[in-house]
Amino acid sequence: MDRTMKAMLYDRYGPPDVVRVGDVPVPEPVGAQVLVKMSATSINLTDWEGLTGSPAYARIGGIRRPAKKTLGSDISGVVEAVGPEVQEFTVGDAVYGDNLARMGGFAEYAVASERVLASKPPGLTHVEASTIPQAGAIALQGMVRAADGKRVLINGAGGGSGAFAIQLAKRAGAYVTAVDNGGKLDFMNSLGADEVVDYTKNDFVTSTEPHDLILDLVATRSPLACKRALAPGGVYRCVGGPARVLLGMAIGGLILGRLSDRSIGVLGVKMGPTHFAGMAELCSGKEIAIHVDRVFDLADVAEALAYVGAGKARGKVVVTSG
Ligand SMILES: NC(=O)c1ccc[n+]([C@@H]2O[C@H](COP(=O)([O-])OP(=O)(O)OC[C@H]3O[C@@H](n4cnc5c(N)ncnc54)[C@H](OP(=O)(O)O)[C@@H]3O)[C@@H](O)[C@H]2O)c1
């Protein structure tokens, strides 16, 4: 008889209460897949997008109904079983990674391709390690141009990626303006932000001096507005937001940037261990701090998602199992 596990399931897009606990078979790893006994899964905005089915790209693979029944991509746990082609890991290894293609982290077990996983740094707990893969990769790539004396703005800076990005920009010697809702201003100041803006009250385009680098984690503006927020030679990159805004940025931003001595576009974030390992090293060496706002039990995933969706999370929210 199949072994069963608890998993947080949903079969339609909607608010957090569409998520329910269910008993399902423990998945079997095939090929180069690893079965991970979950310890911790951190919540990313991509989980919220997958839950609500918005923006439109969150419905890729399942236009009317979610294709994946269990959310949760940034996982950390212990290898329980391996597929016949797995080379890197053996049973008992502590691993973590971003399982974005398969999800499934809000469960007692999840299968992941071994190529998305890395060995968990021994100095980090599973809760800490689970905060790094997606947010760390975004922050590292988004802040690659941050440098001494540069003016850097991070929009959506009070969440998971933003908390890492603020610290990276400060380490690089930049002057950092951090934008998020009013409840996160103190938090962003505590991470080193020189200037903070409440997006519910002020528009950073009109209320701040031009910037050399803008990382927009939640893009809502036109390429023209972004151009106005950039100094000559400045670079704007967004990573998330409504599909029409991202499309406008990719096409209109490219043209406008070329005409105005600025670079405006979408950052296609590369995911995987080689792209988040640098952040794990910085966190293990205590050079970058991990900020976990709250930890929820697996059974309370709906509450955890609602907490994130209500705009309350400062840094990361993590769900633990077992
Ligand atoms: N390009 C890629 O390959 C790729 C891959 C993975 C993820 N992503 C994207 O990367 C982003 C990373 O997000 P994350 O996980 O760090 O999210 P997060 O932890 O949820 O943080 C996002 C922050 O932005 C704030 N925010 C919401 N609307 C805003 C607005 N209009 N102006 C300013 N701030 C606003 C949120 O605050 P509230 O609480 O007020 O809403 C929250 O604090 C997401 O957009 C995701 O879709 C991109």
Kindly describe this structure.
It is a single chain. By secondary structure, this protein is of the alpha/beta class. It has 2 domains: 4-131 and 290-320, Medium-chain alcohol dehydrogenases, catalytic domain (Quinone Oxidoreductase, Chain A, domain 1), CATH 3.90.180; 135-266, NAD(P)-binding Rossmann-like Domain (Rossmann fold, 3-Layer(aba) Sandwich). The chain has 10 helices and 15 strands. The chain has helices spanning 45-52, 126-130, 133-142, 160-171, 185-190, 204-207, 223-228, 243-259, 273-284, 301-309, and strands at 4-9, 20-25, 33-42, 74-82, 94-98, 109-113, 117-119, 151-155, 175-180, 195-198, 211-216, 230-238, 263-266, 292-297, 316-320. The longest helix has 17 residues, at 243-259. The structure holds NADP nicotinamide-adenine-dinucleotide phosphate (NAP). NADP nicotinamide-adenine-dinucleotide phosphate is lined by residues 44-46, 49, 134-135, 138, 155-156, 158-162, 179-181, 184, 199, 217-218, 220, 239-240, 268-269, 311.
